[in-house]
What we know:
Number of helices: 9
Distance between the termini: 12 Å
Largest sheet: 5 strands, parallel
EC number: 2.7.4.25
Bound molecules: cytidine-5'-monophosphate
Protein name: Cytidylate kinase
InterPro entries: Cytidylate_kin (IPR003136), Cytidylate_kinase_dom (IPR011994), P-loop_NTPase (IPR027417)
Radius of gyration: 16 Å
Subcellular location: Cytoplasm
Order of helices and strands: EHEHHHHEHEHHEH
Main location: cytoplasm
Amino acid sequence: MAFTIAIDGPAAAGKGTIGRALAAHFGFAHLDTGLLYRATGRRTLDGIDPVEAARTLRADDLDADDLRTPEVSQAASRVAAIPEVRQALLDFQRAFARRAGGAVLDGRDIGTVICPEAEVKLFVTACDAERARRRHKEMRGGGHDVTLEEVEEDLRQRDARDSARAEAPLKPADDALRLDTSEMSIDEAVAAAVAAVERAR
Ligand code: C5P
């Protein structure tokens, strides 16, 4: 039976961590949809046209090891504003969302566009300073030599672009449950998300 958990929110709010934890807890498959846009953006840096890059994306493009750099983040958010790119990535995400056995998808438009019929919708946020601090720590841990200021600037620019675009902008679905993780530990945020899913089951 299909059961979809849609998680949306701005960059570095905790969507990925919560999504992975929910998938593990309920035995569901997990898709970080940002990776699709990152892999597409990454290919445009090699000179490939964005729409072509999205249409010919392959599974191993999602494994490239430099998808988390600020340069690729920016490229991802630029290609994500192009309607034909979003269209090219739509069917894959919808099929994933309705697969048997349950699915968790995290991104920007999962509850609004990809899967408006999702059984559970979460809109995960955290204050700007906390999001920058977390992403900076994560990137330094991953060996990326970036400053806190560079991370802040990347998040600020992407959130502005992702929220302002005409096609599938970042915004909570009307029926999404909002989860502000600014003051929460990972365990607390995951527990709140698990409780929200349990209520819907
Ligand atoms: O989630 P992540 O930060 O990896 O996403 C990278 C970029 O991909 C975002 O800034 C956004 O522009 C785009 N994106 C999107 N829709 C999604 C997921 C990501 O537009 N569902």
